[in-house]
Specification:
Chains A, B, C, D, E, F: It holds the Pfam family PfkB. Chains A, B, C, D, E, F: Belongs to the carbohydrate kinase PfkB family. The structure is a homohexamer. Chain A is α/β, with parallel strands linked by helices. The first copy, chain A, has eleven helices and 14 strands. The first copy, chain A, has a single domain, classed as Ribokinase (UDP-N-acetylmuramoyl-L-alanine:D-glutamate ligase, 3-Layer(aba) Sandwich), CATH 3.40.1190.20. In chain A, strand 12 and strand 13 form a beta hairpin. Chains in contact: A-B, A-C, A-E, A-F, B-C, B-D, B-E, C-D, C-F, D-E, D-F, E-F.
């Protein structure tokens, strides 16, 4: 039996309704989300034992976040309480040529002020087979980066598979470090990395590259450099996202296992209900796919792409899609016919 | 003066808002709908005298359904009260590649437990020129099927035109009978049938066919078999629906009168506000068209297709579209320009 | 420093939600809008000193309209109170092939009953560099037309640039005059006119024309006739709008300065959140463009087109778009990527 | 079988939600109401055949008002279409010591511009046993007063019982006439009048009085003067309303039949959900009571008071209360226990 | 460590908003509730290990109910899936003298069709110290009564404390049995019973009594008869509820342990936000009180009354009140001061 | 002409709707508020020139706060932009015996990180006659306390009247200082202080007292000690607030001018729509009263009490009450009658 643990921050998400601008809003929809938590939700939704570890403030907002985790079937028994505030983000959902806007308000959150030693990782990761983290946690603060690195090292020692979503957020990384100061060390232990090739190069402090994903033959050379930098890496994956507009995306994916490039067909996604969390839906689908069909990497990749596409039809950060719905898409049925 | 009576079930429809999934909903929009009622609403909306006959529970949900009928200008003086509950359906409206979902909760409703003898059909159908029923009522229960058949026979004896929408619903038909056990007998009396050719064959217990609607010349042979099975049939109509996604439909139609195939141009419908009831909008438009321009079948068919297309832009089950709006579409104006 | 004054009516806008038809609405969203006010909002939004002059009833609806002006940063210190009621309009927002509907309820409003002499224009227009009016005000009533003409003449005497949006509304002009009885005199003083060529000919009482905007070479001849009729005219602009449906527009623009035709590329706008006010967004962008880059007319026109396109993504009458967002579009980025 | 016809105006009511002030509202709840229509709704609700006659504009707001009438079971087959606009009123619902505010916007409505001769009263009042009008209609305009007087005279000639609610509205009566110029003539034909004694004196142009309702013995003298002025009057009724605050009312009633004063116990009503229409609920209850138990005037009065009290618990103008609920109150059960 | 298991039905609750009547509702708030589940929620909220056992349909409504249980921290690992539908109830919340109305729509629900043998009670009740059931389950159907009796007998054999809330619902008990046919046998094993004395006599088939709770000395004789009929009974408790109106309740309580009558002061509760579930809040508080301070029965009773009072301030079925808030009330602080 | 400047923080207020608990909320109403800003709104509302000075983050939340100030007619031209975030507070509105809860999330807000020297006070306070600050600003941080003290000293030097609301908030004061370390120095310059006597003693580091406000004669001695400690003080005012429950308050007030105690009658306030900001409404009413009728202190006090009472009927932090409405209350009319 597989058990996946993800570690990161859960945020209260306050989003305007009906595409209203911030200045028009007189109410906010309140949901929750966060890259690593969203991955755990995807997995729980597919029936995989999934646990999320974070640090929450001991107030009613923290308690409400905990209730949300429980509701979604994500194990939260290692969540710790402490710190002063729950991280927030405000979201204005765009439309057409108008982009969505995010205002982060997560500085000094309970998770940003977590320190190494807060979690007993050896105990927490017992019976865990997969550990997932993303580039958001080291972007929060030095202590959060340290706490994450602590977890990574324990997971590695315990022989647990480690996956990482690079998740570069330019509005974070405000504490005096750049990704290249922190990430190379942490990525040493990653077995699976999800991210654009240029982002990976940037985070690893390598020279800037400009990959041409349409030229499949050109990719192994580029990915191979990552494999060299990250000795435990066995799978590098990139989500292909062509933004026609905020309401129309085209989604594909590439997976490279050191030997072969796998390519998933690009799908049209229109209209977009909510694109936040679609990358996490890809990651969740990818982990599920690799757990279910480890030898069939094409299928794992296709599953991730289909999960990502379907996420765009769901309001909120989570991918509340069933395996059956993904299978229907994989089987070529895009009709959206009413089931009745 | 024409008067159309439709007979069937009206349901309380509880739908999630803003494309939310069932598990995200903390409220439901409450409207009403039901295939045969929706047809009556279309007709009332076009100025045709329309009556709906059903059985409602004697509680505030039943009374509210009655108020809805009155509001919409549908005559309801023959509605009877009895039974224990109003039928319900829960609707989750999909988007893009995610399909809409319907959860029926209509077992043992007041309409499902109706029995023959409940309505004095000879009295009720006085001054009626057209009687419409659909394949949903016989799918509910044996007694509902019997009650419907009773009505059909009286209507036939009284020389009333009878139309039928086959409306196959796989989630119904749970009482031990299959369509082929019930429908052939009932369809004996139908003058107009709306449905896919393969559905008609299936319901009539005929061999499975796979019609190619793009090959117009191939269709008369297939339709002719229906005319043979249904001796009173003079018009068979099929809605062509190509689902690009839940948000994008392409709608056309075919009418065959035993002599000639009429074909209406396929129209793009995007985005889709609500596709539930669009088949009933087609049926309502068809009846109106056949009443207004019985000799101009092409126009009747075009009217039905345009009504169906416009229905997709209306929230709820009903086609609250005016004749003027349909005429504008028929005249080729798809611009959706603001009238001011 | 530029200061722009616009003069006209602000209306309470009562719109149905979620594309509901009027007969389905049990609530209305309440915002404000009006052609000339919307232009002032655009300009205030771009950082231009903008003032709106109108007449409001002395009740809580009038006061609320005033609060709205202040909120949006539009100077309102010359607004006068008087008359009996605030003008209203009811809006049903269409979708796809179903058009939006407007029910005006603005007869005998405080603005419609304004009379010449109400505003001390010489005082009000001190320090003003640009005065904007539209064809809506003379359509309201004889006294509103007279009051507007009074303003125009003062503005002209004071050497202020005058712009006009022709804004023909067939549901107005009910007081016994036609545009050709009123507009030619008023347009004598306009330096910039925004409108379709055929509308301009119609309002000026000239023979009907059928301009072919795709044939650029054919346009100077047509525009030149306007320059002859309007001796102060130096810039004639036309918004090109191709309505694929209520949810899909294609927007371009043409500017003619008596010497040269400038043409802005046609942009796809889909989906449409709200198209009301998009013409005013064009006008606001045009004034801004002509103020900022008077010698670069191509850029001014492109700015107007981009502003108009982006307006379609905003709920309500106003164009709450930043210069940065317009610049991004002008630079060719239509991706709508989340900023985070 | 009794049939009651009421004649007056139906308004679109736009009310702020959750006790918001007008300046805080960004949406309005849209319902309908109007004194005489509200009376018809009460009666229909009690199972009495009730008809409402008015004049509506031929637009979607007028049609929606008609749908509302049908929904509520009020006969509307004599409603006429014409004129330019539906009357509106804006409502801000107070709380505690803060009063509710009404902004009327009904000038020049379709009903205000009705003229005598619009309705064929002799035809319309066939089979009618009771005709009800109120002091609002003559307050609208001279022509509305004339049209109402026309109806009164026909009703009188046809031997129909006539009831009148004095309904003085200080914000109306703007067309140059005062109540005492119009009402005395019209009240000549009233058999039942509902109103405060001082209001009646005022409207009839009599000297100001200051009745002391707690001194029952003092009332006959005062009422008798009304009987002298109104020769057909047989029943004068006064609603006693003690406003503790906007959220707490105390309601009683007095009925005088020329011989005896009947007094209904004062009831506490707290909290108040919506007090608009509570006077009409009293009137509706009174008519019902007088129809059902004409000889038991105490019971008719008690029924009216109980109906009025219960109305305060219902949102909107109408008294959607069942006879059973009123009977429970009359039987002394104020417990509000959940029925389950 | 205590662990409490409750067994019963969870319903989807569809309630009108803002005190609207059913016929006014165009949407329903969707929450969940059910007597025995509400008790489990109270206990989980107080930090007691609480589990709820029921049967749910295997559809998205059943899954959503399961998510609700998890969210609220109620253990649900013994919930079984089966049957056809989730039980529903529609709620119209009254105000003042207008009572709330409940329309049950729970016939043939998954819980009503549960049969003995569905749950392995010996396994399910391992480590359980307290089992709670109520009179609602045997009211649903014969098979539900049988399944409940099965659980009771196993719990008794395992030496588990058994509590029962009599919860008489006149709208249930439709399957041919009366309480006195079923309940006496089941109540044999109850150690704690919550209910009115007359309800207990009625359910046990004893002669009708009319207890005077204000006469404390008269109660032991009446309670003693219950102790005779129910040999395991050690504590009988009655909630005193005086309904001034739907918006104003007065709540007290009486506890009798076979030796002494304990009496809790009556508290005013006004206004009432939602009284549904307040009896379950009493039961939850009572179990908590008896678990925490078994020897201090006065305090246990006071805790139950305070919990019941505070429940009335919470929307929905559950008592989302903290121990600290109850303690504040017990300490005499009713001020409701803002904590900041 | 008077001009009042207030200085402090404006917060985004996120409040649950319909008395929901935080854990039930899936949306938050978004308004703004803050003690000193609320005072400015009151004054602007009464027609007094009012300005608010604060520091806002340069993002869309900061801009939206600025729009709110403008909308409400509060001068904001000295507001500065800087810092990282807008202060927030989450509000759960209680009912009856359940108290409201506030979760402050304002640490490190733009206002909390303001430093002396940010505002050019000598320039900003030109033409100002009254400066108001409260005990909240020094509770935020050392630098905010310093910035406030800087303003106080300049105001004092410029001969401006200074008023202070003590506004003790136990959840603030987290930066290592207690009120008694900071406030005595700052209060040296206050001419008017609003606060409970015991709070004043506590903040000034004096011995604890337990004033008996019902014993008027005992108060001068207590207030006199404050006058000794605060040499510029000429008026000390205390709001009397008796909390019957969260839904029922009783409000009075006491004013002492060094010579005489003025006492305003205690008023019942029930129900309470929103009590947040009612103290600021008192303060705003007091300043207005002292400005309008400086010699009639009784009237000034009565005005403050009436303003405070009426504030409880308004949703949100602000007192959107007109002078006319307050005058009506002062004249003894509590009836809340509909104005129509």
């Amino acid at each position: 039996m597989n058990k996946v643990v993800t570690f990161g921050e859960i945020l209260l998400r306050l989003s305007t309704e009906r595409h209203l601008r911030f200045s028009q809003a007189d109410s906010y929809k309140a949901t929750y989300g966060g890259g690593e938590f969203n991955v755990a939700v995807s997995l729980a939704n597919y029936g995989v034992a999934a646990e999320f570890i974070t640090r929450l403030p001991n107030n009613e907002l923290g308690n409400s976040a905990l209730k949300e985790m429980r509701k979604l079937g994500v194990d939260c028994h290692n969540v710790v309480f402490g710190g002063e505030r729950l991280g927030l983000y405000f979201l204005e959902t765009g439309s057409g040529t108008r982009a969505s806007n995010v205002i982060y308000d997560r500085a000094d959150s309970s998770m940003a002020t977590i320190t190494p030693g807060t979690i007993d990782w050896r105990e927490a990761l017992k019976e865990t087979t997969w550990f997932h983290w993303s580039g958001i946690t080291p972007a929060l603060s030095q202590s959060a980066a340290d706490a994450c690195f602590e977890a990574i090292k324990v997971a590695h020692e315990m022989g647990i598979t480690i996956s990482t979503d690079l998740n570069y957020r330019s509005k974070l990384w405000n504490y005096g470090k750049e990704p290249k100061d922190v990430m190379p060390e942490m990525l040493q232990y990653s077995n699976i990395i999800l991210g654009d090739i240029d982002t990976a190069y940037f985070m690893l402090g390598m020279d800037k590259v400009n990959p041409d994903y349409s030229n499949e033959a050109s990719l192994p050379t580029l990915y191979d450099e990552l494999f060299k930098k990250c000795p435990k890496l066995n799978t590098a994956v990139t989500t292909l996202r062509y933004s026609i507009s905020a309401s129309h995306q085209r989604i594909g994916g590439i997976l490279y296992d050191g030997e072969k490039v796998y390519n998933a067909d690009v799908q049209d996604v229109t209209p977009v209900v909510d694109r936040v969390g679609s990358g996490d839906a890809f990651m969740g689908g990818l982990i599920y796919g690799l757990l279910q069909t480890p030898v069939n990497k094409q299928r794992a990749l296709n599953f991730a792409v289909a999960a990502c596409c379907l996420k765009h039809t769901i309001a909120g950060d989570y991918n509340l899609i069933t395996i059956e719905e993904i299978e229907k898409l994989l089987a070529g049925d895009f009709s959206g016919k009413v089931s009745r």
